[in-house]
Amino acid sequence: MTALLERLHGKHNSSRSWQETSKVVRQAMEKRGVINTAGHQLLLNCLETLQRALKVSSLPSMTDRLELGSHLSPSRTECYITSDMFYVEVHLDKAGKLVDVKVAHHGENPVSCPELIQHLRDKHFDEFSKHLKGLVNLYKLPGDNKLKTKMYLALQSLELDLTKMMHMFRIATNANTVETILHGSVGLLTARSGGHLVSLQCYVSPNDIFEEGTGDIDYYLLLYSAVPRTLGVSVSVTVEGTTSVYKLPIAPLITGSHPVDNKGTPSFSSVTNSNCVDLPACFFLKMNRLMPFSLSYIKKMGSTTGIPVLETVPTLSPLYDLIIKSQLHEEGEASPPALAQSMRFYTSLPGQQHCYFLNGDAPVQDGRSLQGAYVSKIPFRHPAQVPALLDIIRHQAAYNTLIGSCVKKTYIKEDTPGLLRFEVCPLTDSSFSVSFQHPVNESLVCVVMEVIDSRQVACKLYKGLSDALICTDDFITKVVQRCMSIPVTMRAIRRKAETIQADTPALSLIAETVEIMVKKNLPPTGSPGYMGMGTGPDGSNPSWALCHTWLPVDGNISQSCLATLLKKCVSSALEVLV
User: Fold this and answer.
1) What residues pair up with 538 in beta bridges, in sequence order?
2) What is the dihedral of CA 195, 198, 202, 204, to 10 degrees?
3) What span, in angstroms and rounded, lies between the C-alpha atoms of 552 and 557?
4) Which residues cross the membrane (predicted)?
5) Is the pTM of this model over 0.85?
6) CA distances (Å), origin 534, targets 271, 323, 510, 525
7) Is the Cβ–Cβ distance between 177 and 209 less than 8 Å?
């Protein structure tokens, strides 16, 4: 160690110019490829950090940073990245400042790419490299250049049809950005740029739209500015080689510019040998991140296209396990915590603290739990199949959003006073129940939520006949469709129940009255007013006369019939109050 330090001091004391030092560092960086990465990973990381930190302020430093020294023009102001199917031009001035970036695909003229220009001007070389990687991946196709050109033409034709479908929808419906994402036939389309494929954004949850933490809606941004590609659920459109041969269009299939209905649905020309060719390839919708799908939805997508979604028999897992892992991954959790193993999660809300048990192992059909698998891409061969596929993706995304809303990294002690407990249990691949203790009575109540589609969730509250009404089904439906969150909905139900109790202090008196009337089996008609309730003009009790059609002809009524009748009356009265 002493000898090493002496050598370092000797090198430090020796006079060496900055240019010479810089040259030595660059030479070391150029040799980094031959270093044993297993034994020198730390050194490699340091060299990469140095490279990123070097200031790019001259023409040589810019060309060196782009690592395109062997592809320079004689004036050294133009850099080229070439391949058999595309090339990229980077134009610089003599001071090293960026002038233009152009991309040319096979047989096309070079076209300026604003996205690549912006990345290089901002010195985002990593992003620039990602675009180059995307261009290379675009042409990772089987066959010779002639066959690859046909596949690229097929992708171009598909992109033109999808773009036209989005514009026709927006013109027909006058939809804004958010409505286009949620309801559009192809969602919100972002054109292919550089190495980024065409993107279709098809689902955003309220949590995506609202600014996290403040609760203020960032609506203006979504309406009038460019929407980030990473927002919500989106798919990229591409073409990839397959073992089977499919007939793919190499020319746009949409005929005319007038839709066939008020939703902007276009009309397509028939598939013929003149506008389609047989290719060992297929179109794909590639998910922006792995997404859990139930087995029935995977089969439904396969039925829509006639092509199996998964090439091999999938390894199935309980769907709720997949949703939990996916949600924790989105929140930056590298590995599922211990809470995920117990399926218990905690949520802290204003004035309330919840504990959710996700009973994903509950049998749904054939004694098995709800099964599913991750899906990364979905094959198809015609632009008309895209709307149906996006609707299935949206439907599953809405279901996943609701279940995932219970999954948080928050931890609350089990013995925390006032901790409210809920059990979420799957019923079908599109419905589930949320069970909890009645806010007023010591009984169990249940809310069943049916995800009809990505835009509609039907809710039904089930309670005991003698339980006080908490809120109406319509109230729960409106809340859940607005927030797409189980914890927020449960909090709203609790607060609504507290409001009803505060506004109706006579509820306990009404319940006691029903019990007394059932026990005494009071006569239904012609009786004196009960508890001071007077008679009508004809001498009968108007309240009983209102229900006279429910009674037998002889006027006799059983205890059970009377109890049911009175409970219906009380329930109707409470619904009016709600």
Assistant:
1) none
2) 30
3) 7
4) none
5) no
6) 79, 60, 18, 12
7) no
Alpha helices, H only, 17-140: 18-30, 41-53, 59-66, 114-121, 125-138
Question: Does a structural domain hold residue 162?
Answer: no
Q: What's at 339, amino acid-wise?
A: L
| Whole-number Å distance between alpha carbons of 66 and 115 | 16
Question: What is the crossing angle of helices 386-404 and 295-305, to 10°?
Answer: 170
Number of domains in the chain: 1
- Tally Cβ neighbours within 10 Å of residue 481: 16
Whole-number Cα distances in Å, 238 to 46, 88, 114: 37, 20, 21
Q: How does pLDDT run across 393-433, given as a tens digit for each residue?
A: 999 999 999 999 999 988 888 888 989 999 999 999 999 99
Structure-token match 């249990």, residue found: 425
Range of the domain at 63: 59-139
Q: What is the pLDDT of residues 340-369, one digit of tens each?
A: 567 899 999 999 999 999 999 999 877 888
Instruction: Look up residue 312 and give its DSSP letter.
Output: S
> For the chain, how many residues are written?
578
What confidence score (pLDDT) does residue 572 get?
Answer: 55
pLDDT of amino acid 557: 47
Asked, for residue 396, whether it belongs to a domain, the answer is no
Burial of 147 (0-12, 13-18, 19+ CB in 10 A): middle
Please enumerate in sequence order all residues whose Cβ is within 8 A of that of 153, keeping only pairs 6 or more positions apart, or say none.
250
- Residue 418: which region, alpha, beta or left (left: phi > 0; alpha: psi -120 to 50)? left
Secondary structure, 3-state, 259-309: CCCCCCCCEECCCCCCCEEEEEEEEEEEEEEEEEEEHHHHHHHHHHHCCCC
Q: Is 261 a residue whose pLDDT tops 60?
A: yes
**Is 239 among the domain residues?**
no
Q: How confident is the model at residue 243 (pLDDT cuts 50, 70, 90)?
A: very high
What is the rounded CA–CA span in Å between residue 287 and residue 230? 11
* Tokens describing residue 45: 């990381």
State the chain's mean pLDDT as an integer: 81
For 18-51, give one letter per residue: b (16+ CB within 10 A) or e.
eeeeeeeeeeebeeeeeeeeeeeeeeeeebeeeb
8 A C-beta contact, residue 196 and residue 131: yes
Condensed to tens digits (0 to 9), the pLDDT of residues 264-291 reads: 899 999 999 999 999 999 999 999 999 9
Instruction: Phi first, then psi: give them for residue 34, nearest 5 degrees.
Output: -90, 0
| 71 inside domain | yes
Tell me the three state secondary structure of residue 433: strand
Give the span between the Cα atoms of 165 and 168, in whole angstroms. 5
Determine the Cα–Cα distance for residues 496 and 503; give it in Å rounded to an integer. Answer: 11
The model's pLDDT over 161-201, given as tens digits with 9 standing for 90+, comes to: 999 999 999 999 999 888 899 999 999 999 999 889 999 99
What are the C-alpha distances in Å from 175 to residues 179, 183, 262, 510? Answer: 5, 9, 12, 50
Alpha-carbon distance 490 to 479, whole Å?
9
